[in-house]
Amino acid sequence: MNIKSYLIGIVGATGAVGQELIGLLTSRQFPVAELRLFASPCSAGRSVDMGGKKLTVQEARPDAFYGLDIVFFAAEGSIAKALAPEAVKRGCLVLDKSSAFRMCADVPLVVPEINLEATRRHQGIIASPNCSTAVALMGLYPLHQRFGVKRAIFSTYQSVSGTGLDAINELETQIHAYVKKETLQRKVYPYQIAFNVIPQVGSFGADNYTDEERKMREESCKILGLPALKISATCVRVPVLRAHSVAVSAEFGKPVDLTEARRVIAAFPGAVLVDEPEKLSYPTQLDFSRVEKCGVGRMRLDTALDKALSFWVSGDNLWKGAAMNSIQIAEAMVREGIPLRAPEFVTKWPLGDAASCSLGLAGLQWFVFRFFGRLAQLVRVPRLHRGGRGFDSLSVHQPVSVPDCFCSRFLFPIMKFVFAAWKNFLAQTEVAADRLCENFLGSD
Ligand SMILES: NC(=O)c1ccc[n+]([C@@H]2O[C@H](COP(=O)([O-])OP(=O)(O)OC[C@H]3O[C@@H](n4cnc5c(N)ncnc54)[C@H](OP(=O)(O)O)[C@@H]3O)[C@@H](O)[C@H]2O)c1
User: How far is ligand 1, taken at its centre, from the CA of residue 14, in Å?
Assistant: First the structure.
């Protein structure tokens, strides 16, 4: 079988999510032809290990995306806003982990087990949800499919790795300082996180909910395709290094049945049922760190709401909540033959791909030879007679140098334009060639 390999970029490769992306691309054997790592200018030149191979980190700049098929963005939203459109312009599929584009109408927000079909209408950027949202929906979605969710209340228990590498260092440093009876320093969180819980994740909005709580509400509605779904969330940071848990109380349209609820969770591809209270069996954050699926347990009939269930979901925020979800999107798109390139970038050739490619290349070759032939003639020949009128008055027998101002004002800009047009043309040709190969040989 002809397995296509992809040229991949990671922006934010030195961060908590970026490091997981590098590891998961290797361990999941994603077909990577070349991997380019990007971060801030401070990290440029740093060496990163990928399966025993040393890769050098480059500064993330628009031109660095040229030629890549997929770029995973694992950096702050402001960086994604500035650079993701540049990557799309250069023909890349952007899989973004930040919140920059999640609620944009033309950007699919995707959890592959729930709404993979949304990727079919992407315009170059596909967003991956907030980590707590992804984890919570691994329990809520299968129950919604069976009973039809009407409202849900989320309470989160979020690990410090959700804030990134600096927060992991802060918790570890505070624990060491506590053990040594030294003063505990804090930089990332407004309160000491070691031996504490902080009922604030993100910054507060005018309605006194934090932006993490707003994201859980809005993103759940978008992913489930239920704009009127009522959700309320309370997001809490706990002194755990990795993985989040969410306590969910959900009310449904149909009467609920605990045995049936457990059955649908057990049958759902994104979840593992861990729910035997008599054996003290339920999911914990440690048990679901570096685990592909999310654990669902503590399932019971809710005593405050009608037709409602309460349950607990634990999942790895850096995997299902971030890096792995993005990779699963790419894997599923490749598997389903969903085009990676945005439709507007894939040029519709008037005569069909094969004829247009050949004609285009022949035409370009003719133009380039004509242009440089004329240029060579010009450099060999030209000296304008005093008072001469353009090329008509050139003497063929008096070779002279081309004046500097002619080069800087006319020749170089024209050459620059021709090369830019050529570069663009080659990119378009590559897309058409890709499509041809896929049509004739199949994508895998
Ligand atoms: N952590 C999670 O569980 C999680 C879950 C879901 C979504 N997310 C989202 O994923 C993104 C990354 O989170 P993280 O936890 O991995 O953060 P992080 O550990 O702080 O890493 C941030 C990354 O961004 C890079 N960066 C900073 N400035 C840059 C610039 N100007 N150009 C290019 N790269 C730059 C950093 O590079 P340097 O090392 O050079 O500074 C670093 O690689 C954020 O948008 C976050 O909201 C995170």
Answer: 8
